[in-house]
């Protein structure tokens, strides 16, 4: 009798343990099913925040840059300098990276005491420094060309022309990174080219920009040249990561942005002093239509908002890709012409509207091709589909 009671007690205990195990496993399954959704929601929130920083920084900096010239600013080198001078904001990242590397090394030494680390062959410092030097020189030229374009063109025309950087990016990537010209890419190139040509043929464009015909042509050519240079830098950066560094990481992107900005800032400072424009800055500040304080604040906030743009750019590169950040930047370009109507009372005639529509159409075609490329890469690598 006692043995029967003992067996019943044991069976009841096992049943309770089984129920507890089932409840724990159910809880774990529910947590596993909800955690990817939570991480995905957090990812989209971060993408939204970084996109807002990129778009707001880009639009505000462009409008402030035009305000500088509209109210009496005349220094092209100063207009170039404010695009880069805030780069030291990236320096705190190196303190964070140093701590992260130290903790990772401590974890590796404790967990993998018997295994030897696999070391990949790194490129020489001379080659890396040469690329940084080339990047910096090109960026300095781009900032100067953009400054000239913003000085001589209406900000709406200037912003629409900048959409052509996608076409130049595709063109240079064809030669440097073996990208293929698909029908959607060709459609994008044609639309963006026609969009820029329409602005050249726009009647009364010189009158609307309050500059001579020659200066308008110079501003147009410089803006197109700056867009071509930006597309070249994007393609060279991808080539640098794939062929030289042979890895694409957030740390490499920060290194490229920081060192190219350092080189470009030094080049622009040399140009500022060599051109003697620095000697006229005090006179320029005294004659600024909005006053001395507004002069300083305009330049300061232009530099700050360009760095807000850089933070959004880096964030999107970290969360998604460099290509996605470039596409979002081009998507935000139509914001500036709309805001220019209210702030600078620029006219949006039929040709400008048609040019903007074609630029957006070209952007959509380009973005759709990259969407197809991402989908095909996910199908080829099904493991990536399971990652949050």
Automatic annotation (TrEMBL):
<feature type="transmembrane region" description="Helical">
    <location>
        <begin position="323"/>
        <end position="344"/>
    </location>
</feature>
<feature type="transmembrane region" description="Helical">
    <location>
        <begin position="77"/>
        <end position="96"/>
    </location>
</feature>
<feature type="transmembrane region" description="Helical">
    <location>
        <begin position="126"/>
        <end position="152"/>
    </location>
</feature>
<keyword id="KW-0813">Transport</keyword>
<feature type="transmembrane region" description="Helical">
    <location>
        <begin position="43"/>
        <end position="65"/>
    </location>
</feature>
<keyword id="KW-0812">Transmembrane</keyword>
<dbReference type="GO" id="GO:0015211">
    <property type="term" value="F:purine nucleoside transmembrane transporter activity"/>
</dbReference>
<comment type="similarity">
    <text>Belongs to the purine permeases (TC 2.A.7.14) family.</text>
</comment>
<dbReference type="GO" id="GO:0016020">
    <property type="term" value="C:membrane"/>
</dbReference>
<feature type="transmembrane region" description="Helical">
    <location>
        <begin position="294"/>
        <end position="316"/>
    </location>
</feature>
<feature type="transmembrane region" description="Helical">
    <location>
        <begin position="252"/>
        <end position="274"/>
    </location>
</feature>
<keyword id="KW-0472">Membrane</keyword>
<feature type="transmembrane region" description="Helical">
    <location>
        <begin position="158"/>
        <end position="177"/>
    </location>
</feature>
<feature type="transmembrane region" description="Helical">
    <location>
        <begin position="350"/>
        <end position="368"/>
    </location>
</feature>
<feature type="transmembrane region" description="Helical">
    <location>
        <begin position="184"/>
        <end position="201"/>
    </location>
</feature>
<feature type="transmembrane region" description="Helical">
    <location>
        <begin position="216"/>
        <end position="240"/>
    </location>
</feature>
<protein>
    <recommendedName>
        <fullName>Probable purine permease</fullName>
    </recommendedName>
</protein>
<dbReference type="Pfam" id="PF16913">
    <property type="entry name" value="PUNUT"/>
</dbReference>
<keyword id="KW-1133">Transmembrane helix</keyword>
<dbReference type="InterPro" id="IPR030182">
    <property type="entry name" value="PUP_plant"/>
</dbReference>
<dbReference type="InterPro" id="IPR037185">
    <property type="entry name" value="EmrE-like"/>
</dbReference>
<dbReference type="GO" id="GO:0005345">
    <property type="term" value="F:purine nucleobase transmembrane transporter activity"/>
</dbReference>
């Amino acid at each position: 009798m006692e043995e029967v009671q003992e067996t019943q007690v044991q069976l009841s205990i096992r049943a309770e343990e089984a129920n507890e195990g089932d409840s724990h496993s159910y809880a774990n399954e529910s947590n596993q099913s909800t955690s990817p959704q939570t991480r995905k929601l957090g990812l989209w929130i971060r993408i939204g925040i970084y996109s807002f920083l990129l778009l707001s920084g880009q639009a505000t900096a462009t409008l402030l840059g035009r305000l500088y010239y509209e109210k009496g600013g005349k220094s092209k080198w100063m207009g170039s300098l404010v695009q880069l001078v805030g780069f030291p904001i990236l320096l705190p990242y190196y303190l964070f990276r140093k701590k992260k590397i130290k903790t990772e090394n401590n974890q590796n030494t404790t967990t993998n005491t018997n295994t030897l680390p696999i070391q990949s062959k790194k490129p020489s410092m001379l080659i890396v420094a040469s690329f940084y030097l080339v990047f910096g020189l090109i960026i300095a030229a781009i900032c100067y060309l953009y400054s000239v374009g913003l000085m001589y063109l209406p900000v709406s025309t200037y912003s629409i022309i900048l959409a052509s950087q996608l076409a130049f990016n595709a063109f240079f990537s064809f030669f440097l990174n073996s990208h293929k010209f698909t029908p959607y890419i060709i459609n994008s190139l044609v639309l963006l080219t026609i969009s820029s040509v329409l602005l050249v043929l726009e009647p009364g464009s010189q009158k609307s920009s309050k500059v001579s015909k020659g200066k308008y042509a110079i501003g147009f050519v410089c803006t197109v040249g700056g867009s071509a240079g930006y597309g070249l830098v994007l393609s060279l950066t991808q080539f640098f990561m794939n062929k030289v560094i042979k890895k694409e990481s957030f740390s490499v992107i920060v290194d490229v942005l920081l060192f190219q900005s350092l080189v470009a800032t030094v080049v622009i400072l040399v140009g500022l002093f060599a051109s003697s424009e620095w000697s006229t800055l005090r006179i320029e500040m005294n004659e600024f239509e909005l006053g001395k304080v507004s002069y300083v604040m305009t330049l300061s906030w232009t530099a700050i908002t360009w760095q807000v743009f850089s933070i959004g750019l880096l964030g999107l590169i970290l969360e998604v890709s460099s290509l996605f950040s470039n596409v979002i930047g081009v998507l935000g370009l139509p914001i500036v012409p709309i805001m220019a109507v209210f702030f600078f009372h620029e006219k949006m005639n039929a040709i400008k509207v048609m040019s903007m529509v074609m630029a957006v159409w070209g952007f959509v075609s380009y973005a759709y091709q990259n969407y197809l490329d991402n989908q095909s890469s996910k199908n080829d690598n099904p493991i990536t589909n399971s990652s949050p």
